[in-house]
Amino acid sequence: MLLPSLDDGITLLDVEGGRGVPILQSLVLDHLLLHDGPAFWVDANGHATTTTLAQIAPSQRLLNRIHVARGFTAYQHYGAVCDLPTAVNKSIQTSTADTGAAGRGEPSRDEDTSPHTPALIVAPAVDAQYRADDTLGETHAKTLQARTLAQLATYAEGYDIPVLVTRNERNEFTEPVATVADHHLECEQTRMGPRVVGEDFETLVYPVDDGAYYQTTFAYWRQLLAARATQVGVEPTTPAPSTPTPEGVGTGVTADGETVAATADPLLDAWTATGTGGR
Description:
The protein is an alpha/beta fold. It has helices at residues 21-34, 50-56, 60-63, 74-82, 84-102, 128-132, 138-159, 175-180, 218-231, 266-272; strands at 9-15, 39-43, 66-70, 120-123, 162-166, 183-189, 194-197, 205-207, 213-215, 250-253, 259-262. The chain starts with 8 loop residues before the first strand and ends in a 7-residue tail after the last helix. InterPro entries: P-loop_NTPase (IPR027417). Residues 96-116, 234-254 are annotated as: Disordered.
């Protein structure tokens, strides 16, 4: 109800007014709570900060399932993305060996996922190193970024998992990021907290300390009242527009007692009335 689910394929998260590290990390941790398997995080610009991860993670064991590689240049970042299958295979070998030595592990929370195969790939600020690397020309930077996005798309399809990416800026350079994305999430900072909007999700309520919820959107009340009206047998109706259209503002009664449609111009009504010599 509070966070959107991440579907298979590439999901682009755009955060208005900042890097959005807490919301990014919250989406990752929420996904790991619902699915088995590790997350592989190719970091840039310090999004995988252990300080905030430790603060918001409900369990230290959850953090053990996040494998982080960092790229401080464009080639390092691209290399980390290309080496991801090797890291996945090594993780699978280690986890299966540990499971075999310890006996049967805990039952899976999700029958469609395995505790050994990846559950999520994260690549925040996917454009950062390619934009900032002075050793690359513009053409080479775009080419290397495109190859990185192609690799991530291949992993999303090959592993059948979500790949969560963000970008530093919205401009021509990062248009390919939006093009390759299968899903798009928009996050804006509001007075009540971060509000996330996606194809099938919209933040409508915000939790408070006593376990209740605040809401700030008219959409929430509209949905609530429409559901209540249906429940009590009242057919929801669409309210009439506040400004009448020129074609008609209602009905009127003539001196003969005839009901006629009235327009916004009473002189026009008289001029076009039938049986009065008008036309």
